[in-house]
Amino acid sequence: MRYSGFVSLRTVVALCIIMTVMPIAVTSVELLSKIEERYDLVNDELCLYRLRRMLLIAYDTYTDGSTMNFIYKDSERQLSLINGRLLMTPGYQMFLDDIDSLYFIENEGCIVLVYEKDKKEYKAVLCEAEGIRIADFCDNSDVDDELYGDNE
């Protein structure tokens, strides 16, 4: 009978420790999920950067909406959505994955990639026309709302 209060005290101390640790654990899990989401965005940006570098030396670039065609290293190449991936053919060079949909828009000599991933829409200027810088194109207020939408 003398030790029955001792067991209750241990239980109360254990519950206090658990109640102190739980908020820290929940916060840590939330932060890890945000880091994973940022990792995907950073990975996409790195892949798009690699694609832009390739398109800098490509020529005869044009798009029909669902595909983008260009000549790179003296051979015809095509970017298109295949099985949820942005692939360059011939061959199998993957730039983006887990894509729900994508299309290309050509406006004022610039080609913009618009893609949907995890129910969010992303836009990326892939290549620019001679004499037009990407920064100038993005700051132009006359650009179609189709490209950048209403920010208001």
Would you give an account of this structure?
By secondary structure, the protein is of the alpha+beta class. It contains three helices and eight strands, in the order αββββββββαα. The protein has helices spanning 4-56, 134-139, 145-148; strands spanning 59-63, 67-72, 75-82, 85-89, 93-96, 101-107, 110-117, 120-127. The protein has a five-stranded antiparallel beta sheet, covered by helices on one side. It has a three-stranded antiparallel beta sheet with strand order 6-7-8, with helices on one face. Mean pLDDT is 76; it is low at 131-152.
**SS field, number of helical segments:** 3
**What structural class is derived from the secondary structure elements?**
alpha+beta
Give the total of beta strands: 8
N-to-C order of helices and strands: HEEEEEEEEHH
Average per-residue pLDDT, rounded, comes to 76
Radius of gyration: 25 Å
Helix content: 40-55%
Low-confidence stretches: 131-152
How far apart are the first and last residues' alpha carbons, in Å?
A: 72 Å
Instruction: Work out the strand percent.
Output: 25-35%
Strand order of the largest sheet: 1-2-3-4-5
How would a crystallographer describe the biggest sheet?
Answer: 5 strands, antiparallel
Q: Estimate the global geometry from the Cα principal axes.
A: rod-shaped
